[in-house]
Fold this protein.
Amino acid sequence: MPLIRKPQTGTVASPAIQDVRAALNASSADERWSAARQLAGQPGHDALLAETLMRESDPRVREALFTALARDGSEQAVAAILPFIRSSDAGLRTGALDALATLPQAIAIHIETLLADDDPDVRILSCDLVRHLPTADAALHLTRLLARETTVNVCAAAVEVLSEVGDARALPALHACAARFAEDSFLVFAIELAVRRIGETGASAPPAPA
Amino acid sequence: MADQTRKKILVVDDAGLVRRYYREILESAGYAVDEALNGMEAMERLLQQSADLLIVDINMPQMDGLSFLRQLRRKPGAPGAIPAMVASTEAGDDDRSAALAAGANFYLVKPLSREVLLEHAGLMCGQRHG
Amino acid sequence: MSTILPATEEELRRLCEFLYRNTGIVFTETKRYYIERRILDRMAATGATSFAAYFAQLRAHASREIEHFINALTVNETYFYREEHQLQCLSNDLLRERLAARTDGGPIRIWSHPCSTGEEPYSIAIWLLENWPEVDRHEIEIMGSDIDTRVLEEAEAGRYGRRALMRLSPELIAKYFVQESDEQWRIIEDLRDSIRFSRANLVDPAGTRQYGRFDVIFCRNVLIYFDDGARRVAAENLFENLAPGGFLCLGHTESMSRISPLFEVCRYNDAIVYQRPLGTRHG
């Protein structure tokens, strides 16, 4: 029988924490990756993780750094991740957003500010973060945004998420937006579809059980 | 029209309404349309069925459009050479340069009108990248 | 317009788009009736009084409703030779690739994680013994792990009922099982002694690291039960437990595209699998 069965192995000893922190600087990406993963779920390393993220170029290590910060999920961790949604590097933006998507409660207090950011790119990306909030909150944020927003692509991003989270209360803002941007064929199309998806039965749903 | 003679376009965008918009316009013009929500799913779709043109967004979860294009362009043979148009909300020159460097043939800023979409689809379908 | 559901076409599309975004499963027009039936079942089960109310529950991940909904689409009972196409891929392609890539001559290591009551690791063993021409030329180490020690005990004991064996021919059953009663068969001792069962937690790297690196890992129909954060960690752990160039097989409705960018997707005749890249370059 070619099948073999190896004996039970012992557990791997955990290295000292200061060695793990130092390994974030190792020359090998494997070592840095391993160090980032070992710090995940351990409090008190946000500052070092964030600092490492700013100079790390290996995509796998960056991913592990974001995961480690997201696992912490503290105020400081979220504050460390947020700036990366402004990065000129698409991979860093995606990494940050994916990490923040796992922290809906922690991101909630930042949403209003993000949706009012001067940079339309930030407002666009923040609409997608709103998707992870409780439905009623998400719909309210986006309806308010839609009422004041002047950049067509931000409206489009808000409409996309509203098509998932919206109910009848979003309809006036959607219709008003379609009127404001009547010459934009995509936005008019998107709003019409969103309205149909929210639908007649989209009258305020009872709150979902926790 | 037999399915094999229709040009196939893979639309890669995490916004369902955008994918739907492109699909309706392209299908009414006679193209076969497939969809993916991010770069990884796009790679999976391409492994199952090749495409004559890719329309790719940049900001998508798990794998952004530029990472996808870089990975795609490393593939040997036909899959690596599929022409790609990036259609993104990012409007800066840096974004355009980055997209072209990653392997896009064209870079367009959203939203796309029906005319612009069809004009570029007609131009690019069946061309090769590089 | 739906014929049985109190919802319009677009409202139904909203639900399908939501599920597609979260799971990667495409709900095509041909599955429409089946999905509507499923929604009605779940509305009854959850007490949702309207389609909108049900969608609200789904969105809120209330009582993990997404998993309940998806469960009906994947047959979740475990049996021998389940998803046989992946076993075919293993013997037709994956092992050959691994042997070509490796020069160390060590055993081929395959992990079934989670292994539940053992059908999967035993299936892999039987399949290879029966279908892989090279099987006698290599050492093969198969390990089965689960977080639940009760199912591990059952796996070690190796006793199964008629339903678990339904995909196996009478010849295979006669060869690899001993019939203990009208409704119970037991895996032969040689095979039971050849597979190692161990407790492991997909989300805990400290626990899984000790098992070293594998050539192929089967991790089927479990990641869907994790939340987004746990899923990412599990993907990283699976990556770490794979040798560079090693392969990961998920359940047939699952996709890494909703979980993690670490893996590259590979297509073979029989299956689509994920691979830890060979080199250091990524993305």
The longest strand of chain A covers residues 3-4.
